Amino acid sequence: MRKDRRRVLRQAGSAMVALTLVRPAVAGGADRDSDVDVHIELRAARDQVAVRPGRPTEVWRYKGKLLKGEAGSLQPSDSYLGPVIRLRRGQRVRIELINELPEPTIIHWHGLHVPDDMDGHPRHAIGPGQRYVYAFRVLNRAGTYWYHAHPHGRTGHQVYHGLAGLLLVSDEEEAALRLPGGDQDMPLVIQDRTFDDDNQFVYPAAGHGMGASMMSRGGGGRGMGSMMASMMGVLGDRILVNGRQVQALDVDRRARRLRLLNGSNTRTYKLAWNDGSPLTVIGTDGGLLAAPAHRKFLVLGPAERADIWTDFANWKEGESPSLQSLPFEGGMTMGSGPLPDGSQFPVLQFRIVGSGPVEPARLPDRLAQLPPVQASVAINAEHPKVFDLTMGMMVWGINGRPFEMLQATAQETVKLGTHEVWEFRNEGRNSMMGMVMAHSMHIHGLQFRVIGREIADRFAAAYRTVQPGLMDEGWKDTVLVMPGERVRVLVGFEDYPGLFLYHCHMLEHEDSGLMRNYLVKA
Ligand code: C2O
Ligand code: CU
C-alpha cells in the first residue's frame, strides 16, 4: 500500500489534482509483483493509426506492457483497439492505468465481477498524468469480456476515439470442450465510425457533465446537430471490424469460434449469414451456454457479446459467406444518421481458401453447467423494482432523474448476499413527442439472468420482426430493451459491497443521463 502511494506521487509530478489511493483488492495485498500472477501497464494516450487507406487517423488508444506473467501478447495491435488481454479464472491481476490524455479518464472492466473501487466508476476518474492501480482476482467464468473508458459525460467521445479492448477469460470447464483455439478462435469487435475527407473520426455529440471548457476545447461539435446526436446516439457510416476497415477475411474450411462484440457507441445490429445459414450461438456476455442455440438472425445491442461457432466446411473454396446486418422494420427507432436502420449492409465478409479434405468438426451438444433460473430466490420476486427509462427536457434518465454521481438520494440500495428482480420499462414515459428508442441496459459488477419480456400492444407488430433474434440465454451483463418493452432480470449481489452503476450502453444516452448508482450494503 505504502509503496503504491509513493509511486503515485513520483509519477504524478507537481501539477496533480487529487491523489487516487487504491486499496488492494487481492487477499494478502498486491503490493509486490510476487503477490500477483499477471501485472500489466496500460497507457491511455493519443496516437495515429492507419485505420483505412490514406492518411492515418488520430486516435486515443491503450498501449499495453506486460510486466509479469502471461496475458496474451499485449503487442500493440495494428488498430486503435487496446491489446487483447487473456486471463485465466482464479488469477490475481494487477493493472496500472496511466493517463496520458488531455482530460480525465478511467477504465471499466465490462462484465467482470470486481470490488467497487476496481470497477471504473466515473467517480474514480484520474486526471492527466495520474495513475490508477487496479488489483483484483479473476472470479468470472471463461468468456468474452472487454474494457473501455468510463469518465462521466465523456465515455462516448473516448470510446469512439479508440479507448476499448477485449479481455478474454479462460477456465477448465471451457478447456475440456476443446473448442476451436489458436487462430481458429477469432474475436471480432464490430464498430461503426464516420470519417471526414481527411480520414479523421467525426464524433458529433456534445458530451455532458464535464463543463463548458471541456466541450469547447475538444471533442464535440455544438448546436442542434450535436444536441440531436447526444440525444439519439451516434451512428457511423462505415463498419469497422477489430478497428479496421476490412475487405474480406481469408479462412480455411475448419470450424471457428467467432467471438462477436458489439463495441459500437449506439448501433444495434441484426446479424445474419447472407445465404440464410443459421447462426450457432455457444456463448453470451458471461460465457458459455448450457447447450448450443440456433438463430436465423441475432440482434446484438451495444456492449452485448455472442460467441458463434461456425464450421467453414459448410462452404466451398472460393465462396464468400458474409455476415450482414438486416434492416429494422416497422418504423422502429434504433438511432439516426447515415447507414440508416432501414438498410441492409455487410458487416464482415469471409473468403474460403483451400480445398483440402476437412475432418468434419463436431460441436459438443452439452457445453457448460448453468444453474437454473429461479426467480423465487429473489427477495422481491412478486414486486420487482421498476426502472422507467425516461426522457425529459433533452436529457435521458431513469425514473425521471438523470445521473447523479454521488447523490445518496438517487441510489438504489440493495443488500449484500441477496437476489432481486429488476424490471426495465421502455414505454416512452415523459418522452419528447412520444419517441421511444431501444436501450441496451448494462449492470456493473455482476452477471444476471433474463427472466421475462413483455411487449405493449401498440409495439407488438414491429417487435415480432426482432424478437426471434434476441438471445436471453446464459449469463448476461447487458440486455436490449426494445421500444414498448418490459424486461425482467434476476440480479444477485455477491461478495462486494459498495457503489456500482447501471446504465444504457448506448454511450450518448449514458453520457446524457441514462445512468444511475446502486449501493450494495453489507
Ligand atoms: Cu461497458 Cu458502464 O459500461
Ligand atoms: Cu439508451
UniProtKB/TrEMBL annotation:
The name this protein goes by in its record: Multicopper oxidase CueO
Keywords per UniProt: Metal-binding, Oxidoreductase, Signal
One GO molecular-function entry: oxidoreductase activity
Complexes and interactors: Monomer.
Annotated ranges, domain Plastocyanin-like: 78-173, 380-521
Leader sequence residues: 1-27
Plastid found in the keyword field: no
Catalysis performed (reactions): 4 Cu(+) + O2 + 4 H(+) = 4 Cu(2+) + 2 H2O
Cell cycle among keywords: no
InterPro entries: Cu-oxidase-like_N, Cu-oxidase_C, Cu-oxidase_fam, Cu_oxidase_CS, Cu_oxidase_Cu_BS, Cupredoxin, TAT_signal
Gene3D superfamilies: Cupredoxins - blue copper proteins (2.60.40.420)
SUPFAM superfamilies reported for this sequence: Cupredoxins
Subcellular location field: Periplasm
Lineage summary: Bacteria, Pseudomonadati, Pseudomonadota, Betaproteobacteria, Burkholderiales
EC number: 1.16.3.4
